[in-house]
Amino acid sequence: MRIFLSFTLLVLLVFVLTPLAFADERVEIFSWWTGGGEEEGLLALLEFFSANYPDLELINATVAGGAGTNAKAVLKTRMVGGNPPDSFQVHGGAELIDTYVKTGLMQPITDFLQEWGIKDKFNQQILELCSYQGELYAIPVNVHRGNVLWYNKALLAQYDLEEPTNLYTFVTALKQLAEQGVTPLALGDKNKWTATHLFECIMVATLGATKYNGLWDGTTSFNDPGIREALVVFGEIINYVNEDHAALTWQDASERVFSGKAVFNVMGDWAEGYFKTMGWTPGQEFGWIAVPGTRGSFMVITDCFGLPKGAPNPDGAKAWLKTIASVEGQDIFNPIKGSIPSRLDADQELYDPYLTDSMHDFTTAALTPSIAHGSAAPEGFITALHDALNQFITERDVEQTLHRIKKAAADFL
Ligand code: GAL
Predict the structure, then answer these.
(1) Which class is 145-300+367-412 in CATH?
(2) Same fold, 24-143+301-363 and 145-300+367-412
(3) Helix (H, G, I), strand (E, B), or coil: what is residue 401?
(4) Which atom of ligand 1 approaches the CA of 372 most closely?
(5) Which one of 93, 203, 221, 224 has the minimum C-beta count within 10 Å?
(6) pLDDT along the chain (413 residues), means of 10
(7) How far is residue 107's CA from residue 15's CA, in Å, rounded to a whole number?
(8) Closest to 389 (Cα-Cα) out of 207, 189, 250
(9) Which residues pair with 369 in a beta bridge?
(10) What pLDDT is stored for residue 154 in this prediction?
């Protein structure tokens, strides 16, 4: 009998208690960072985390697809189904607040920053994007810039072109390049967000930052002529993209610039991280300017992580949040990722000439939240805009597309 009892106890220990103890030591961090540059940045951050918390087993849960094309749907299903990861990548702004905070799926973490004594160390406008009704719900690990025009320096010199500074000279440059038989602008809109990304940059150029920002608080009407103009210019610009654009991802498009098959690419500065992992040095092989016509504006994208309600290991999640909130963590991640820190006290020496430029512009330019990357508008609007632009690329019907965009605004904003 005694032997039987001891055996039962052993079974209990091995099969019931061990998994529980194990569960406590695991921390699952969910993101879509699998592409060149983004993966390297994430891995460096995970390594830093593991060095500080050797007892925690890190689960690097990724779902591939730029801008969260596939990850966002997987995450939503898990969150709604009561199976959240311990922490997950999410964009500050509407994506965090409307999708997860207002629906009651996140824990406020305002106290964490107070406990760690670092609330005043962050850019407050970025913290605002992570806050709702006075509470903080996520820690911003970085700030990306969306409105960047990248170019292959050797090709620009070969075709004897200057950096275009407004939409008009940009279109002229694209035309000249096309006449010489090279792909002027690389686009990879296999995932629809890249077309929206290009379009939102053009919108900032035609509307200006103030009117663009007014679209999200109702002070600018969607009847504003700047939107129509953006669509017309967008139509002109996409006349000069690679024919196989619908088969390519954002990385494929950036790679066209790297391999000398295209001169320009409009992409967020995660492309900078990608160029660097392929071996390019900023300012040597590639150059950058704000998308023509948007020089005084900074299209803001911020990657954040929070604490979902029901996270299996909230202490582990807290350790992760402390890591990404730390200046050391941010200084390890951002120089590789191609983003700048959300903290104000980063070590500027660690940032390359592109990122130094970005830091400067971030503090001086007007900030405009990105639509394509979840900050400006709720998911319903973004999906409708993706679809409208996608259809526009094949049909080129300005009036129909305008109608669709206005309807999306009326339905979702
Ligand atoms: C953005 C994200 C960036 C980068 C990019 C491409 O939405 O904020 O960190 O990962 O997608 O995947």
Answers:
(1) alpha beta
(2) yes
(3) helix
(4) 7
(5) 221
(6) 48 43 77 95 98 97 96 97 98 98 98 96 98 98 98 98 97 98 98 98 98 98 98 98 98 98 98 98 98 98 98 98 98 98 97 98 98 97 98 98 98 97
(7) 31
(8) 189
(9) 300
(10) 98
What is the pLDDT, as a whole number, of residue 6? 53
For ligand 1, atom 9: residue with the closest CA: 303
The closest-lying atom of ligand 1 relative to the alpha carbon of residue 303 is: 8
Per-domain residue ranges for the chain? Answer: 24-143+301-363, 145-300+367-412
pLDDT reported for residue 9: 45
Q: From ligand 1's centre to the CA of 125, what distance in Å?
A: 20
pLDDT reported for residue 13: 44
Q: CATH code for 24-143+301-363?
A: 3.40.190.10
Spell out which residues line ligand 1, taking CB within 6 angstroms: 32-33, 35, 38, 66-68, 144, 268, 270, 301, 303, 373
Q: Please provide the distance, in angstroms rounded to a whole number, between the alpha carbons at the two ends of the chain.
A: 70
> 119 CA to middle of ligand 1, Å?
25
Q: How far apart are CA 33 and CA 14, in angstroms?
A: 36
Identify the residue whose C-alpha is closest to ligand 1 atom 2.
67
Long-range pairs, 173-181, Cβ under 8 A, ≥24: 174/237, 174/239, 174/240, 174/264, 175/240, 177/240, 177/263, 178/239, 178/240
SS3 190: coil
Angle, helices 270-277/38-52, rounded to nearest 10 degrees: 90
Paired sense of beta strands 138-140 and 135-136, if any = unpaired
Token pair belonging to 91: 């964009």
- Closest Cα to atom 1 of ligand 1: 67
Which atom of ligand 1 lies nearest, measured to the CA of 35?
A: 12
DSSP for 69-115 reads TTHHHHHHHHHHTT---SEEEEETTHHHIIIIITTT-B---HHHHHH
User: Is residue 143 a contact partner of residue 301, using CB atoms and an 8 Å limit?
Assistant: yes
